[in-house]
Amino acid sequence: MRQRITNSLIGGALLGGLLLSSCQKQADDAAALTEQVPGATQPANFPAMAYALSQNPPDKATFELGRTLFYDARLSRDSTVSCGSCHQQFAAFANASHALSHGVGNRLGTRNSPALHNLRWRRELMWDGAVANLENQPLAPFTNPLEMGETLSSLLAKLNGDAEYRRRFTAIYGPGPIDSYRLLRALSQFLAALTSSNSRYDKAVRHEGGTTLSASESRGIALVASKCASCHATDLFTDESYRNNGLDAAFPRDSGRAQISGQPADVGRFKVPTLRNVALTAPYMHDGRFQTLAQVLAHYDHGVIASPTLDPALRPPGGRLGIALTTQEQDDLLAFLQTLTDQSFITDSRLAEHP
Amino acid sequence: MKQATIVGLPFVLLTGLLFSSCKKDSAEPPAATVGTLTIDMENVVGSAPLVLDRSTYTSPAGEPFTVSCFNYYLSNFKLQRADGSEYAVPESYFLIRERPTGPNPDNGKHFVLDSIPAGNYTGISFLIGVDEDRNMTGAQTGALSPDNYMFWTWSQGYIFLQMEGNSSRSGEPGTHMLAYHVGDFRRPNNLRIVAPPLPSGGNIQVRQGHAPTLHLRADLLRLFAGPSPALTNSVLFGPFWMAVGGSQIVPIVNNYSGSTDRHVPGTNSMFTVAAIHND
């Protein structure tokens, strides 16, 4: 669009300036924005975003409103639980040391709270892909009786009854009541800003600041590439597919992806999680069954259990189940997984409850 | 705009022009060549009008029941011409609710399809529910807002149609409730296209300056009986008093749409064109 206008109409610098400011304001401000709103750029080693910047252009006031909402326990039925209760920054927004999370009335959920990072790159959310768009994701915890236990109308009434929220929403979206659209758009600006791309691994692959990895860590990278990357692929370390990695023989309580797709072939399949910040997000797996990364590696080495939908990658022809890993290989993998911890992400004060 | 006032009037005019060229990507057809079509919805139960709570009806299986809630989405309207071509009405999403709840008081029974190219149309089709794409798009407003409580928030997606009521024959021993909620766009895919025939020889005449109205009737009894005895999935309230999505609800979907396939329009569905008023 800008092309067309500049070609046909550019008459003088003054006019050009006006045009830019009317039509292209967002793009021109992009540089300034990245300083104000975290996570508003594409890291060089990441794949393309699924939730593009243009879908909800980052803006400081909206991001900050999203942050307030994320940490506000009044959004739950009894004002005890916020998003931040189950998603804690120091744990890369996972729920530290909770296999299953506690919601309102101290009720226990059914799955492990995943870390929240790099959500812009996710096509589907939740362990089973129950949510196909980041913007609608908060509707799930808001209304889940095991999480925030609120109804949408009561939640919106609370927000509309708060003069400060009304002022902030109106300043961004104009006059009119706070509806679910405005609430979801604001909250998703905060969620989308949770980009974690500055681990030691990232700096090394991008050749930044002379960061290098040790011999053991480098061997770990090669091991992931050869033994894990059929699932934990790309620099996001997930191919976003649903797989059965051999945790159980049957899945009567939680069948995973099959709950969404209705296909028997999906029983026991769960979203391949990223490995980023994994050293911070114990316990592991959808039900939080493993306490340490060493236990996870032991599982792949000798704990994989057969079931009809077990992934072919974990049942090599003629061989025993799983991925054979020597002690040395396990040590190297553990060393490598530590390099995926992004200190700057978990200490970024702009993402904190009290910035 | 603020800058423009400082610079002076010529620039105001100029930027005004530029603004409009920024916004319009494609040229709209000249006004004289488009018109509107108003749809008036009427919910009935067999030959009786639908009255919530107070009227008792009899199902095709001979069981008495009342209705406390009846809501459904209609979307993706298309109008067919005699030569086989058709016009797809963009952004056509409508929520019809016998008794609206939530912040939006509109029952949706009277809605307008606008900017339709003028011409004579010999057929109409639409989707019962919300298409796959919109189930996976971000935050929505209007008919598609989750504030209307027609969106499943956990395993996310729209509720395409919902009917609730009571029956002394319900298998639910306490409240004797009935509850049928239709959704799911993956597998099973419970979306259906329906193409109710126009009254014989009738066509819809869309013209500039005219306001044709199509009177569309929805028969709730069709949840419990298909288009013909052979294609009926009989619903007995004892064993089948509730279903929320999934494959359980498929018999009801096939009954009301007269189609077992997402892509094959049902021509004998719960919807009938009662009248066309070309005014």
UniProtKB/TrEMBL annotation, chain A:
Keywords: Heme, Iron, Metal-binding, Oxidoreductase, Periplasm, Signal. Residues 215-341 form the Cytochrome c domain. Its main location: periplasm. The keyword Signal applies. InterPro entries: Cyt_c-like_dom, Cyt_c-like_dom_sf, Cytochrome_c_Peroxidase/MauG, Di-haem_cyt_c_peroxidsae, MauG/Cytc_peroxidase. It comes from the Bacteria. Pfam families: CCP_MauG, Cytochrom_C. Gene3D superfamilies: Cytochrome c-like domain. Residues 1-27 form the signal peptide. It is found in: Periplasm. This is C-type cytochrome. The lineage of its organism: Bacteria, Pseudomonadati, Bacteroidota, Cytophagia, Cytophagales.
From TrEMBL, chain B:
It comes from the Bacteria. Residues 35-229 form the Copper-binding protein MbnP-like domain. Pfam families: MbnP. InterPro entries: MbnP-like_dom. This is Copper-binding protein MbnP-like domain-containing protein. It comes from Hymenobacter negativus.
